């Protein structure tokens, strides 16, 4: 297989020569199974980085150089990735920095993950065995850790511990070649978060995290700016707004509105009076609600919301898993109704217990309702949809294989 290590450079004259020697001279010979190449993507660095690369190209035939205008790190990588796929027949690419913060000796460990069948191998700083530079001041560590945590939480990528790492291997076939590199949300550092989102959330990639020590930069300086931090924040927000969870939340809110509107409409319809009157003999018994027309109107209004939730989640949130055949649709709709009963049971228990403990007041009822919805019903519904209805998540032990697995310790053992 052809594996291309892509190294973007901007003013890395003090690093790139040593880096190419370390990679091509020392590390590539250790990787016998593959044809290893390097692609340096230099944005016409004024310090003469490209000249050093050209000298090394005379020494090693595995090096290629791509020159271009400076448009940011993401633009450089997009250009490099397309070139590696189109012109260098890459089967996998490795994203790597020139400044020795990524250890050339770790390249073979990423390649090992590829050999073990993984599509996406992340050099991870935030798992056991990984680290960030000790020399960094507290605020730098905090920004790195905080940014990573924020992105993980907002995008619900809990299983991956390092989502901003710049050192990783990506399989080309079926993964990188499916991603629209011309329309990434960032031309700068945040492109990494976008690609990671595409890989983890949109495609069935097998993911491995390999611990790496992210070294201190000894030569030259970081090109990251305050603007890049702000941009990363907006990219995460934009990705969140595209996410399934956000769509699910909007549809849930619309369902709630439908529920309230139909409750008013139905309670004014005489058809429910007729219906409930056949149970009027229950008035005065424990089951008097069954004889109330409004109870039937409420149930019908809830069913309207359930129908709306089902239709819109099927065609929007889970568009990729969309159910179309009429028989399957009927069966899934039945399942959907059955899982919706869970939400009723949750409310029954939570509001029932809250009222029992704190007394039956509007404040207690409404607080319990909001608590039940936010902490239990939303996670419950989202899980049911993903696990049972549209089957996006595969829960181990329930007979399915996980589609995104994290294999993260030093021995690369499966967790
Ligand atoms: N061609 C090109 N164009 N290369 C660039 C550009 C650019 O606009 N900006 C940066 N580079 C090159 C640098 O020359 C270096 O080889 C590599 O990209 C990484 O740049 P640094 O400026 O050293 O990045 P960093 O150390 O601050 O950030 C690293 O860690 C982050 C996580 O903490 C990178 O790996 C980030 O991608 C990563 O998110
Ligand atoms: Mn760096």
Description:
- This protein folds into two domains: 2-242, Spore Coat Polysaccharide Biosynthesis Protein SpsA, Chain A, CATH 3.90.550.10; 244-414, no CATH class.
- The protein contains twelve helices and seven strands.
- The protein has helices at residues 16-27, 49-59, 73-87, 107-115, 138-154, 191-202, 226-242, 244-267, 270-277, 293-317, 326-358, 362-389, and strands spanning 2-9, 35-42, 63-67, 92-95, 120-124, 168-171, 207-211.
- The protein has a seven-stranded mixed β-sheet, with helices on both faces.
- Helix 6 (191-202) packs parallel to helix 7 (226-242), helix 10 (293-317) packs across helix 11 and helix 11 packs antiparallel against helix 12.
- The radius of gyration is 28 Å and the shape is elongated.
- Residues 399-415 have low confidence and may be disordered.
- It binds guanosine-5'-diphosphate-alpha-D-mannose and manganese (II) ion.
- The site of manganese (II) ion (MN) has 5 residues, from loops.
Helix and strand arrangement:
Blueprint: E1 2-9, H1 16-27, E2 35-42, H2 49-59, E3 63-67, H3 73-87, E4 92-95, H4 107-115, E5 120-124, H5 138-154, E6 168-171, H6 191-202, E7 207-211, H7 226-242, H8 244-267, H9 270-277, H10 293-317, H11 326-358, H12 362-389
Parallel strand pairs: 1-2, 1-4, 2-3, 5-7
Antiparallel strand pairs: 4-6, 5-6
Helix pairs in contact: 1-2, 6-7, 8-10, 9-10, 10-11, 11-12
Bound molecules: guanosine-5'-diphosphate-alpha-D-mannose and manganese (II) ion (MN).
């Amino acid at each position: 297989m052809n594996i291309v290590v892509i190294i973007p450079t901007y003013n890395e004259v003090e690093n790139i020569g040593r880096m190419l020697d370390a990679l091509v001279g020392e590390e590539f010979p250790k990787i016998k199974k593959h044809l290893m190449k390097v692609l340096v993507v230099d944005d016409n660095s004024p310090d003469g980085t490209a000249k050093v690369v050209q000298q090394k190209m005379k020494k090693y035939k595995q090096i290629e150089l791509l020159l271009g205008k400076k448009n940011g790190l993401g633009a450089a990588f997009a250009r490099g990735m397309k070139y590696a796929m189109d012109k260098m027949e890459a089967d996998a690419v490795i994203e790597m920095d020139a400044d020795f913060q990524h250890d050339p000796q770790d390249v073979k460990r990423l390649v090992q993950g590829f050999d073990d069948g993984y599509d996406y191998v992340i050099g991870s700083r935030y798992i056991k065995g990984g680290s960030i530079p000790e020399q960094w001041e507290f605020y730098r560590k905090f920004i790195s850790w905080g940014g990573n945590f924020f992105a993980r939480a907002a995008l619900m990528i809990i299983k991956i511990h390092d989502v901003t790492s710049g050192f990783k291997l990506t399989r080309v076939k079926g993964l990188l070649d499916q991603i629209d590199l011309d329309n990434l949300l960032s031309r700068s550092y945040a492109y990494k978060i976008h690609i990671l989102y595409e890989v983890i959330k949109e495609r069935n990639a097998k993911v491995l995290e390999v611990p790496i020590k992210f070294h201190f930069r000894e030569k030259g300086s970081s090109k990251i700016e305050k603007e890049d931090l702000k941009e990363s924040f907006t990219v995460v927000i934009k990705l969140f707004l595209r996410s399934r969870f956000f769509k699910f939340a909007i549809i849930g809110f619309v369902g709630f509105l439908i529920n309230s509107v139909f409750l008013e409409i139905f309670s004014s319809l005489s058809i429910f009076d007729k219906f409930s009157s056949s149970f009027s003999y229950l008035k005065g018994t424990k089951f008097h609600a069954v004889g109330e027309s409004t109870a039937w109107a409420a149930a019908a209004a809830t069913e309207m919301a359930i129908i709306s939730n089902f239709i819109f989640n099927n065609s929007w949130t889970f568009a990729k898993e969309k159910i179309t055949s009429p028989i399957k649709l009927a069966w899934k709709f039945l399942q959907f109704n059955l899982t919706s009963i869970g939400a009723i049971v949750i409310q029954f228990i939570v509001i029932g217990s809250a009222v029992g403990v704190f007394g039956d007041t509007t404040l207690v009822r409404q607080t319990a309702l909001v608590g039940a919805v936010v902490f239990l019903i939303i996670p419950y519904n989202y899980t049911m949809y993903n696990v049972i209805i549209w089957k996006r998540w595969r829960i181990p032990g329930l007979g399915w294989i996980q589609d995104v697995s994290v294999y993260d310790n030093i021995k690369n053992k499966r967790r």
